[in-house]
Design brief:
25% strand, globular, T-fold, 28% helix, 8 helices
Length: 311
């Protein structure tokens, strides 16, 4: 009996996280390198803090800018999700996000006056998607695609690996995981739902996945405790400029589109468990795992027989 080849893997620090690509049933080192380089490319394109990036060019433009059709579609998806959020999910939130610092030394809560000034610049109705893949931002509007960019990049990397005829792969962008094909032996991949405030390897449950993406958003990812004893985290409600406290610890979305799963994970967190679960149940190709602050695990109907709690 011939044993299947051991998986090969590559890890790089990109997108402010560790990006890992693992190939199963393949020894194609060039495909590994290509997937990582594609991630590196989009890391540069979508980094709004890089003045040379596409997103910076768009944010500073005084007239419509033509962008890559795939990026145009990503913006369309983000605006579609924003329309479902009553204003809470909005990719024009950049001025507000600039007031917060979850990684540096300051870690101070912005003043109400500063928040009000920044919120006056937020509103996705000021983003216009025009013909020929052109985008126009009205004066003062700044995009922040942090809530959907990783999902888009994961989809692009998965598309590339399929083009390279890789039989099976896992792309992990630190909380954004996409499975390509199957493992040797025609077996599905097993992806874990991360345990909040624990090591990334610790899970609360698992799902068998084939050609789908599981994306998680949680208040544990980037947070700090203020002088007032309140936990402040990076999932900001665009109507208030403050971290959302909806009774959720984390949201994990399963979909064939990592782009949609990424945006939806944030959107659902902002909506809260009841409203978000209704939204998920009405969507095709979408399932969810919600972990609540009071210790409950809430599953969408399609996961009742698929989700396996970790022992």
């Amino acid at each position: 009996m011939i044993k299947p080849a051991k998986p090969i893997s590559r890890t790089e620090f990109l997108l402010d996280t560790f990006v890992t690509v693992t190939l199963y049933g393949s020894k194609d080192e060039a495909a590994l390198d290509g997937a990582i380089e594609l991630c590196r490319y989009y890391d540069g394109v979508l980094n709004r803090h890089d003045p040379k990036s596409m997103i910076s060019r768009l944010n500073s433009a005084q007239e419509p800018v033509e962008i890559d059709p795939r990026l145009y579609d990503m913006l369309a998806t983000a605006l579609e999700l924003g329309a479902l959020s009553q204003g809470r999910y909005d990719i024009t939130i950049a001025p507000v996000m600039d007031l917060w610092d979850f990684k540096g030394d300051t870690r101070k809560v912005p003043s109400q006056n500063a928040l009000e000034q920044a919120l006056a610049l937020v509103g996705q109705e000021n983003v216009r998607l025009l013909e020929n893949h052109k985008v126009e931002l009205l004066e003062g509007v700044q995009l922040d695609l942090g809530s959907i960019a990783k999902g888009f990049i994961a989809d692009e990397m998965a598309w590339y690996l399929r083009e390279q005829k890789v039989p099976g792969a896992i792309v992990n962008l630190g909380g954004n995981v996409i499975a390509v094909g199957k493992k040797p032996g025609n077996k599905p991949f097993v992806i874990g739902v991360q345990k909040p405030f624990a090591d990334r390897q610790e899970t609360v449950g698992t799902l068998e996945v084939t050609n789908q993406s599981l994306v998680s958003a949680g208040l544990y990812e980037r947070c700090f405790t203020g002088e007032d004893g309140v936990l402040y985290h990076h999932i900001i409600d665009a109507t208030t400029g403050m971290p959302a406290h909806t009774g959720l610890l984390s949201v994990s979305i399963l979909s064939s589109s990592s782009t949609r799963a990424d945006g939806l994970s944030t959107l659902c967190f902002l909506l809260g468990p009841e409203e978000a679960m209704k939204l998920v149940e009405d969507m095709e190709d979408t399932e969810a795992v919600f972990l609540t602050i009071d210790g409950k695990t809430l599953l969408s109907s399609g996961l009742a027989d698929r989700y396996k709690p970790t022992k």
